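Entry for fe (iii) ion complex. Fields follow.
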Amino acid sequence: MLYLGCHLSASAGNLEMVKTAQSIGANTFAFFTRNPRGSRAKKEDPIDCEKAVQALKAASFGPLVAHGAYTMNLCTADPEARRFAAEVLCDDLRRMARLPGNYYNFHPGSHVGQGVETGISQICDALKLALAPGYPVTVLLETMAGKGSEIGGRFEELKAIMDGVGSNEIGVCLDTCHVSDGGYPIVEDLDGVLAEFDRIIGLDKLKALHINDSKNPFGSHKDRHAPIGEGSLGLEAFRQVVNHPVLKGLPMILETPQELPGYAQEIALLRSLEE
Ligand code: FE
Ligand code: FE
Ligand code: ZN
């Protein structure tokens, strides 16, 4: 089963997102838990959440992949700002419990000159506070392009966070643009990259994909997304991704520069690649 979707606007509510997803041929989707470039969150609506949960089930959707705000940096240098970021994480996770069985993905953080080790330990501190045992939503760390002081550009860094938190509950969302920009040759050797992921982290931890082409060449550490088939990855790479036995059943989220009609086309295109 291919679970394909894209980022949707959360402003009209969860049930509305399920309907929008269905209208563009999606059977999963992503949404920002709050303003992606700010921190404001919407008022909670338990009835809307309940209706959305029912609609997702009725339409056999794959797991949703909610996305934390870009501004939430758990390893920023200022202690006050770091505490605020950790509070945002806690609040997001508490809210996501109304959508049980789904994923909450976020960018691990940028250490802003504090060093990778310090950054990782600060991210772990926040996650240890936020994660409660038996929590109904799985937290996913996103693979990053390694731009600036971003943490998560290497599989080893994600593994260090998971080990530091000491929770088995944390998974990974692999972003195809980011890993290629980060220097993992998914175009030339997808099997090799997945073998490396398995060796360092374990493929059982791979829970979701962000499927984006890249505006920049392999290893550029840039992070600019391109439409599917129009970047340095190319359509053939996505044919391999959607047909790979390890990846096939995972929710695949488009974060390409598109509006809804463009997303509908990309979803149809990706479905047409399925062998
Ligand atoms: Fe992301
Ligand atoms: Fe992404
Ligand atoms: Zn990106």
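NOTE: The chain has a mean pLDDT of 96.
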